[in-house]
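Worked example

This section walks through a single chain of length 139. The input is the sequence exactly as stored; nothing has been trimmed or padded.
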Amino acid sequence: MSPAVQIALAVALVVVVFLLLLVLRRDRPRDLVAPDRPAGGGQAEVLRLIHAGRRVEAVKVLREQTGLSLLEAKQAVDALAAGGSWSPGPPVPGKGVDDAVRAEAARLLHRGEKIQAIKVVREHTHMSLADAKRYVESL
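Given that input, the structure is written out below as tokens.
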């Protein structure tokens, strides 16, 4: 046999083996692997994900644990990744709102003055606009 025929047979053999492997692999069910998460949870899990280079998952876990917005969770993860620290920060909007402020906001909301109600809540609690809006809408 000539060398050209030997090379052609070798290439054909490699192509056939490759195709067989593809067909056999397609018939196998794929392994579905869930991300490994320790049972403990908490900030330790977020730190573990950050150190593993899985920042997106760390942001997701932090949001699930704390209810932070996407931006706030990303900023917290970035701070932790840079070697800094992070604490949950101010309490959940609505906690610690004076009864008089709550009553005034409810009265304004009932009269259809939602914007004024949000202003009252912001003036007395120093909440962000978004938090005050959520609080007023929850009344």
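What to look for: The chain has a mean pLDDT of 78.
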